[in-house]
Amino acid sequence: MVAVAGKVVMVTGGRRGLGAALVDELLARGARKVYSTARAAYSDDRPQVVTAELEVRSTESVAALAEAAGDVDIVFNNAGILLPAPLLTGDFEDATTTFDVNVFGLLRVARAFAPILAANGGGALVNMHSVLSWLAGSGAYGASKAAAWSVTNSLRVELASQKTQVVGVHAGFIDTDMVSALDLPKATPAEVAARIVDGLEAGATEVLTDDVTVATKAALSGPVEGLTFPTAH
What we know:
CATH architecture: 3-Layer(aba) Sandwich
CATH topology: Rossmann fold
Number of helices: 6
Strand content: 5-15%
Low-confidence stretches: none
Structural class: alpha/beta
Mean pLDDT: 92
């Protein structure tokens, strides 16, 4: 388990939504410094927050951030993209972009920061997945989150020897711009952020942030036909 107080933390995609809520929660729990990234430069008046540009699709951009943030103890791989479209008829470039951000972007960050975490004592790597990792019907997004789940589980094995806690987070529907069009019950970003950090500090390897995620995980042992994205109402 890794306590946040006194630690240096990085949150990718920290400018808004769940990322911004994670930055707030980490500061509230005593993080010494939080690197918060976005694709474009922005400012934050809080002295503990260091903003940085990051394009997770670029190995060079990730490497530059790792060079500048060698004091990081905990990494939150939160940056992601949602481009809704069916797999068969949607724009194929959108599907490849989705995988490049949600899967390979996560892996680029993990590869760049794993040596830093090792040098700083092990720390933690927290990767954001989704309930849609397990539910059919959300196109390339769900497929990318399923791949990210697999990547996280393998990274947990590969990073065990350096004592890095690897946490996979599965969240249902969070009240952010990304899913604003979905007429479904949603948790607030602050609620989800608190549950994620609770799990990290408790030593969890997987965090299920809400009831729908818990129920879906339990349904994985049942018929695959039961694992379908819920219809909005």
